[in-house]
Structures are given as structure tokens and as C-alpha cells.
Amino acid sequence: MMDPRRSAQDVARCDHCKENIAKTYYDICHVSLCNPCIGDHISDGYHKHVIVPFKERKSTLKFPICKIHSKETCKLQCKSCNLFLCVICSASHEHKESDFIVLEDTCKTKKGGIKKDAEEIEKVLAPTYEEIRNELISQIANLHVNGDYEKITTVISDQGEKWHREVDRVINKMKNEIIEIKEKHRAILEKHLNEIKQIESLIVGNLSTLKELEESNDVSEIVDYRPRIKEFRKLPAKVHVPLPSFSPKPINGEQFYEMLGFLKPFVSTTDENGYKIKSPEVSPRKLLDIPEIINTFNTGYKLRSISFYNEEEIWTSAQTGDITCFSADGKCMKTITTKSEKILSDIAVTRDGDLLYCDFSVKTLNKIKDGKIEKLIKLLGWTPTNLCVTFTDDFLVSLYNDDNTQSKVVRYSGSTEKQSIQFDDEGKPLYSGNNKIKYIAENRNHDICVADWEACAVVVVNQDGKFRWRYTGHPSGAKKNYFIPRGITTNGQSQILTADHCNHCVHILDQDGQFLQYIEDVKGPYGVCVDNQDNLYVAEWNGNVKVFRYLK
């Protein structure tokens, strides 16, 4: 029988005796012990040790020791100076007027972000870069296999056979040009391949760090974590190198080189949108036969929009100039008054927890970070009405023009316009031309979904702005009122959920626009969003927020 201590699949052993199987773990000491060795280890003072079952190791947070009060641990952080503080320090004169952050709460939030970043790298970004690498390797291999360059050389040779000694000199010259172009082509692709490999190496290293941080209970390490997910999420520009071509001409000895033919200049171009991030693979979940309400609370406002960041940050906007944050139990956490103090058209939350909002009274798009309002864009000739944050951290905004005759969707990266979507392939408007709000959401397959309530339709285009489908309500006509969609959101199943304000329900559609189910038990639904478990949050006009579980 194989000695388990020499086996690659050995169980965790006691760190003290090195023989017995570890049964418990000391979360502060980071020591695994068998039962007989526990007494020896804790003999220096039982109060110093936190004992947990071995499977729950590293579940206890390890707070830093206070630099001033060595017997105290720091469980608070000062918002003003960012210093870690113990309870004694927090009561000192220096910090008497300060606000504090509970480090345990920060760690919980950071851990969630770390896990989310690790999952995105592992399931989305790493496979995307692997696909890019394989594509480049294939392109380089095809330079030899397909023989495209060799075919051009043969055409040139056939033309050259019609010429004699003087022609041979020109033929050799052009062949050399082909070889040089081919080598430049290879060099560009190989350079790009090396860049991709370097990024992949950084991703692997970052993923390893994230995995360690997921297992870590060291507060300093966790709080010091600075995500690089934005850096990796921005894919490199895709290199395009078109093949040269040869155009033979009738023989003219006086204009030898020109009449023999010419090669197109060697041009290497890049396409910022050439690569696409792979959609994450998700396990299919079936719909519940009857959706159930799992939570409800009243905000005291006539609600317009709702956006979920975490259970302590559920942001809402209403018929006021305020943006109000609630916790999942309905407690008002904070209220932010906008600069214009006018009614907002929409709000959204970024992956980093920053708040975005459209202020259509002054035609601006704004960001709120750490309580400070920053104007990102001041629009001319167009008014923003609704927005959403994409999975690549761009944001999509629906707009109408000053004479209320045109509507469009624009993609922004920061304050830079990257894409404008307004017409279909036949030049017809995709959206109704008026000043009515066009609610917007991006699906997991990167489709752009717009609830156009004036047109009584949900209009969906793909990532490139090409029309896919239009939904105008359930064909059975089961509801007595017209389908007038308001808020719209998507879930991890790439399903689309849109609020039917006048029929007091929410429609669930699949990614191809097929009706799946109604969610009822709502009254005058306006804004909708989903949480991390795909539970649906519905903001009702009467001020209620209802949370539904509709997936098994």
C-alpha cells in the first residue's frame, strides 16, 4: 500500500507533529493541527487563538495591530486620512470629528470584487486572449500553408515569361518586393502575438494573486488590492494586414516596370473593435412557474429609476433632483442632491461603484465618485434620456435632438464617443423620433436593447448596431392595454426583462425576442434592475420597491 505521505494526493497534515491528519485550523496563527497537538500549541494563552474546523480555515479576518496601542487591533479606517484605527484611536481628539469605515465591511465588499474579477478573468478574459493568440498563430501558419503569396509570385512569373533579358531584371526585383512584404507581414503578426502572450502572462499572474487574495484573511493585503480588471478588459487593437495583389498589363518595352504590373503598397492597419470579448458560459436556469416576491420596501418617492450595486447600495431616482441610496431592508443610507436640483432622467452604477446620471435639464452626463460630482459630457443639440453601463465599462446613452424629430443611441468610453446607432441597413430610423425616453440595457451577448415606449416596442440591435428584432407585446393580446415598455434590464441567462407600465407587469423575453413569461403583482412599474443572483428589482411609481425571484 502506498504511503500517503509520499503520495501526490496526501491529505493536510498537522504542522506540529507532521504525522497526524489535521482536524482544526488556527485562523490567526495560520497553523493546522491534529487533536493531540492542540494542547501544546495553545499553552501560551488560549485567548490568542481562534479555532475553526479545518474546512473553514482562513474565515476569520486578521486585522492589523495598532501602531500606537500594541494590544489593540485596527477595525476602523478614517475616511479623512485613510489610516487604520483601533477603537482607542477612533475616540482620540485627532479623529473626534472624523467619519469611519468598518474594515470588516470593506473586506466583505472587496472580497466580492476580488471573486468577481477572478471569475471574469478565468471565465471570460483568459479564454478571449487564448482565442486571440490561437487566431494569430493560425494566421502565421497560413502564410505558409495557403500559398497566397506564392500564387502572386506565380502570376508575376507567368507574365515575366513573355519578356526576355530586360524583363528578367524587373521580375527579380518584384519577387524580392514580395518576399520583403511577406517578412514584414510575419514580423507584424509575430510582434502582435508576443504582445498578446505578454498580456496573457500578466493575466495568469494577476489571476494567481486574486486566487491567493480570495483565500487570504490579511486585511492589509485585501484593502491594498487594486483591481487591474479594467486594464485587461480593454482588448488590444486587432492588426489587419491585407495581402498585396498583382495587376498585369500589356507588354510595353518603353515603360517596362510600369507596364509589367504593380503591387499594392504594404499597409498594416489596426481596428480598435476588431476583437470581441467572449460571452461567459452560464448554467441554464429554468423559470419558476409562479414568480415570488422575496422582499419589498417603500422609499417615500415616486420612483423613476433603480440600479443595484450591492445589498447596501441600491440607488434610486424619483420626481426630485435627488439620488437616494437604500439598503436591502429599506433603510435610507444616503441622499445626493444634483447640481441642477432638477428631475433626473436616469441613473446607473459602474462596476467600481461610481454613480452615473443623466441630467436632461442641462444636457449633461455626470459621474459621482466619493460624493463628488464630475461633469463628463456637455451635449450640444441632443438631450440624454437614459443610460446603462456595458460589460466593457463603456456606457450607452439614448438621446433625442433639439427639434424632437430624431432619436439615437451613442456609446461612450469616458467622454469619448465611440459609436452612434440611429438607422437600419435601409436608412430607416430604428427608434421613434420624439422626446420620449428610450430605456436602454446591454445584454450578455452584447446586444443593445431599447424599450421605446412611444413606439410600443422593444428594439434590439447587435453590438455593431445592426437590427436584430423588434418585440411589440405578446401576440395573444392577453393584456387589455397597449404594450408601453418603460424600464428594461437583462440577466445572466441573456433574458430581457421590461416593465409594462400600463398593464402592471414585467415581460420576460429570451435573447431572440420570444416571450417567456409575465411577472405580475406589480403596480405601475417604472425602473427595473437585477442583483448578483438575477433577482429582479422593480421600482413602482407609488414608491415601492419589490424584489422577485423568478428563476429556479
Outline the structure in words.
This protein is of the alpha+beta class. It has helices at 38-41, 87-90, 103-145, 148-160, 165-215, 219-224, 229-233, 256-260; strands spanning 24-26, 31-33, 51-53, 76-78, 84-85, 100-102, 238-240, 269-271, 287-298, 303-310, 313-318, 322-326, 332-337, 346-349, 355-359, 364-369, 372-378, 382-389, 395-401, 407-413, 416-421, 438-442, 448-452, 457-461, 467-471, 485-490, 496-500, 505-509, 515-519, 525-530, 536-540, 544-551. The protein has a 4-stranded antiparallel sheet with strand order 9-32-31-30, with no helix packed on it. Strands 10-11-12-13 form a 4-stranded antiparallel sheet, with no helix packed on it. Strand 14 (346-349) and strand 15 (355-359) form a beta hairpin. Helix 4 runs antiparallel to helix 5 (165-215). The radius of gyration is 31 Å and the shape is globular. The two termini are 46 Å apart. 28% of the residues are buried. Mean pLDDT is 86; it is low at 1-8.
Strands, count = 32
- What's the tally of helices? 8
Low-confidence stretches: 1-8
| Inertia-based shape | globular
Report the sheet with the most strands, covering strand number, pairing sense and barrel closure.
4 strands, antiparallel
Radius of gyration: 31 Å
How far is the N terminus from the C terminus?
46 Å
SSE diagram, text form:
Blueprint lengths: L23 E3 L4 E3 L4 H4 L9 E3 L22 E3 L5 E2 L1 H4 L9 E3 H43 L2 H13 L4 H51 L3 H6 L4 H5 L4 E3 L15 H5 L8 E3 L15 E12 L4 E8 L2 E6 L3 E5 L5 E6 L8 E4 L5 E5 L4 E6 L2 E7 L3 E8 L5 E7 L5 E7 L2 E6 L16 E5 L5 E5 L4 E5 L5 E5 L13 E6 L5 E5 L4 E5 L5 E5 L5 E6 L5 E5 L3 E8 L1
Antiparallel strand pairs: 1-2, 1-3, 4-5, 4-6, 7-8, 9-32, 10-11, 11-12, 12-13, 14-15, 15-16, 16-17, 18-19, 19-20, 20-21, 22-23, 23-24, 24-25, 26-27, 27-28, 28-29, 30-31, 31-32
Helix pairs in contact: 3-5, 4-5
